[in-house]
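Title: Prediction job returns without error message
Component: structure pipeline
Severity: low
Priority: P3
Assignee: unassigned

Description:
Job completed but the reporter wants confirmation the result is attached to the right record. Sequence as submitted:
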Amino acid sequence: MKDTLKKKMNNLRDLTLGELESFLTAMGQPAYRARQIYRWVFSAKARRLDEMTDLPQDLRRELSQAFQIDTPRIAHLSPRAPDGTRKYLFEFQRGDRVEAVYLPGPSSQTVCISTQVGCSLNCEFCATGRMGFSRNLSAGEMVSQVFEIEKEEGAKIRNVVLMGMGEPFYNFDAVMKALNLFTDSKGIGLSARRLTVSTIGIVPAIERITREGMNAKLAISLHATNDHQRSRIIPVNKTYPLEALMKALRAYAHVTRYPITFEYILIKDLNDRPEDAEALSLLLRNIPAKINILGLHPTGSTWLPSPQERVVAFQQKLRATGLNVTLRTSRGLECNAACGQLATPIPSSVRTGSTNLTDDIKKKRAR
């Protein structure tokens, strides 16, 4: 009975201030109580209702019948890499798990968080895709990854990248809600310029953020310059081919005026030739772009990383065209925390929740 009741409770880390005000008003409480609770949850990062000492005990007791602060358990911590990078394995109440990564820096601390348990995309260079998909995370479960890492590390997180397990735009509504929670000045108060959402290129979602806006920067996992190459390593490219993707990105860039980051993993004999660099510069014309070149990390793939001399030549070729290019240093390889290496075993019997934004849009229109 207790477990059943707990599942029906509202996780306070999932609620916006407006939602909390609605709940409290329905309980006969003044709106300022919602603001107090919201500050406790998102500014003070309280983990229990009894920490909210400026609330009357009777109110805390009443709140405990409807609300909880759902915090994931740190199931495992990796050893630190030499640069301080560390991988976290989080376990949620229902038993499923995700990984997140802490990336310390000289002036600011960054975390890479997950948006789904598993992933349905099955990209060749990513270990998460071989897990399959289990479920979407809630906004509060995304926020909790940051809060729990902050507590464990004793560090103030300044940058958050939604680039861990899962495709963020296949969990669109919860991701947008999490971004709003992260940037709300009455709570966490991060700048939208310190948040990044990385997507494989889900065209309907990009079209939607072009119309509605997004409180974060956009990063695209590109990794190829033509459909033949890209479909070999990114199956969803067959649904959203490069022509449609680049059209959507040009429209987004025109509206927002913000640079788009393009992630490009160099793979031996697939996308690392001089002509690929030339094709990439043409593909990104008329788009304010920053290109991050990455190495291919060990994930069980049969593909091989490009030799160092090809990496350098590729970078130089792109720079010669005037593009902003960075060769990104691999971080966390020593603890399997680098890009593409996040994965956890999940029960094969658990396969719930929609991962298709297009299907979700059709369902909403049909209502």
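Comment from assignee: result matches the submitted record. Residues 66 and 269 are 57 Å apart (CA to CA).
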